[in-house]
Amino acid sequence: MQMLTGEVIVQHQGVEYRLMLGLRGIAKLQDQYGARLDPIRNMGQGEDEIPDFNVLLNIVDIALERHHPNAGADLSEHLLIEDMALPGKLLKAAFPEAKPAASKPAGDKPSGKAKARR
């Protein structure tokens, strides 16, 4: 099965879980943390800063909703304990970097003008 944007697959106790942080998930996070998601984006900026575990657990909870709506709250905690980078992976999957255009030498770009006849 093809993975969707925002989807991360994890294993826990021999079971595969598909976590999805798609548009609906991002919208839920924006509703809670603001449109720019500042509490999430600025998390962990300080050297001795302790991350807000409520936010981290909430990201995992929301990502479980689509494919595992009946998952208990303890599953999010176990997944987070096993991989503290999971919320970051979900966010990175939800906001993939734009793929660069096919590599062409700079001189090969069309200027929009027809070449003069010689």
Shape designation: extended
Order of helices and strands: EEHHHHH
Q: Which assembly state applies to the chains in this document?
A: single chain
Helicity range? 25-40%
Poorly predicted segments: 100-105
Total number of beta strands? 2
Mean pLDDT: 83
Task: Return the structural class.
Answer: alpha+beta
Profile the largest sheet: 2 strands, antiparallel
Strand content: 5-15%
Radius of gyration: 20 Å
Region (Disordered): 97-118
Q: Characteristics of this structure?
A:
118 residues; alpha+beta; two-stranded antiparallel ribbon; 40% helix; extended
Q: Would you mind describing this structure in some detail?
A:
The protein has one domain (7-96). The chain is extended. The protein contains 5 helices and 2 strands; from the N terminus they run E-E-H-H-H-H-H. The longest helix has 13 residues, at 53-65. Helix 3 packs across helix 4 (73-82). Helices cover 40% and strands 10% of the residues. A two-stranded antiparallel ribbon has the order 1-2. With 118 residues, it is α+β, with helices and mostly antiparallel strands. Residues 97-118 are annotated as: Disordered.
